[in-house]
Amino acid sequence: xxxxxxxxxxxEGVQTAGIVAAAVAAVVLLVLLGACWLAAQITGxxxxxxxxxxxxxxxxxxxxSSSATALVLVSLVVVAVVTALAARQFGLWxxxxxxxxxxxVDRMARHLSAREDEEExxxxxxxxxxxxxxxxxxxxxxxxxxxxVAFKAPLFSDFELTMLxxxxxxxxxxxxxxxxxxxxxxxxxxxxxxxxxxxxxxTRGVRSRLGRxxxxxxxQIVQEKPSWTWDPLGFIAADDAKVARAQRLAGTFQACxxxxxxxxxxxxxxxxxxxANLMLAATLQGHSILATLDWLADLKANNxxxxxxxxxxxxxEHGYGEMSRQLKADRSLTPKQLDGLVxxxxxxxxxxxxxxxxxxxxxxxxxxxxDPAAFVTSTDTxxxxxxxxxxSARPVVTALVMAVTDAAIxxxxxxxxxxxARPMLLMLDEAANICPWPELPDKYSYLGSHGIIPxxxxxxxxxxxxxxxxxxxxxxxxxxxxMLVGGGLRSTRHLQDLSALIGQRTERVTTAxxxxxxxSRGEDFRRVDIFSTAQLANFPRMRAVxxxxxxxxxxxxxxxxxxxxxxxxxxxxNEHYAPADVRAQQRAIAEGTTRKAVAA
Length: 600
What we know:
Structural class: alpha/beta
Strand order of the largest sheet: 2-1-15-14-11-3-10-9-4-8-5
Helix content: 40-55%
Low-confidence stretches: 1-14
Largest sheet: 11 strands, mixed
Number of helices: 24
Radius of gyration: 32 Å
Shape: elongated
Mean pLDDT: 84
């Protein structure tokens, strides 16, 4: 019968199975002998050793009794029950099954990459590039990826590579990818966007030693109070190309609107342009973004509160005649048309209706404004927390990511070699849910050349398609210098594509036939997928396949943070920032995870 590649046993697998079988047999024999000896001592029969039992049997002396036999059976049952309870308590059976799964996957590593395929990911190669680019020594060679399964060497992503990770939930992407990379990034600013508090709690203490920490937490995921503000209109004011920036900001807000699929083909673009013109007027007049809500409340009125002024006149006075005429033309539309445009703009800006958001966007005497231009030249850290639900802050989060990235690009263009003096990390965990920046796929290909290192993490490809469309997701996959694929993926079509990208191997098949007068044996060869669709769907934890340009895929063992060089600092950070109930829950979840990681 033809076997799947995982089912085929090679010489190494047979040797391992033989060792395991011999060890199990030895343990069983020792337990049996121990039970017999104990029964002999308790019942007073037997001579106390197997050799003496045999001699007593030949001498026709009583060497055993029925009560001793019963006691042996009881002892074996007790041992079996205790062993089963211990295996359940410590997860021994699960660990053994998980080890088998990893073992089956690891055996395929020799069919994937050769040593030269991993050369550009090795520590020495990455460090040479960092030295050539003038990266400060404290930055290290790059972001850690894990260890090569085939050659046991640590692998890194250098400071020019962009990264995309596709991994399902509970696979280890936070513990073995996000946390280690944020903590290993020592020499420059870091932007960390996430929807869970564990990434912030585990890394905040480590990053606070390098510079100031800014936490944007509108939805109180980590219960951070607003101590600083950022008005999205600052993005428009930061450059002379204010019209284009206003349109980009409106488009970003539109992309974060959960109801954008229901937007009319006419009112959608029209409402976006209306919003862009109002935000431009508010910027020119020095208002906060809240002024747009006041203007949208009664757009037809041209006698708004004296503190705000008329947006049509504001645009005209500052030399933006075309925008002024567009806004005046919008006012002249029929009530039904105007209501459609205003309704669309209001829906886009719905996130501002919550007064809680106002504390994070309007500066006062106690909350200083955040400056993206100063941030990109520092070693500070910006945590952006948001959840994809009603009242979500993701429009502000996405706009802030766009503003910081634009500031970093401008700073890099002014620097020598077109690169930031200190690289900037852009860690976008659950990017499609909390930061669906529409420009991200277009910018991905050249961010690395400026020293901006984006790491986009998705649970599956469908998330990216929903956020950026099929073409945008394909562009993101093609532009990523390193694409990591782990377990937990379930889309058959996507897994088939991945299986084809990983490639095939040659498998030897032995056939045998037997007749009345003869026997024959033959060998044949066939091409099979290194990892089939089913095997990729059941990929074990702490394993990932890395795709890089110009090299064959590499099988990687992910290294969780508690096995890394910053384990003590990360644990101390979590102990300090995470509440007691959260830590207890984390420990309960981590018990099984830790055992599985140790087994790897």
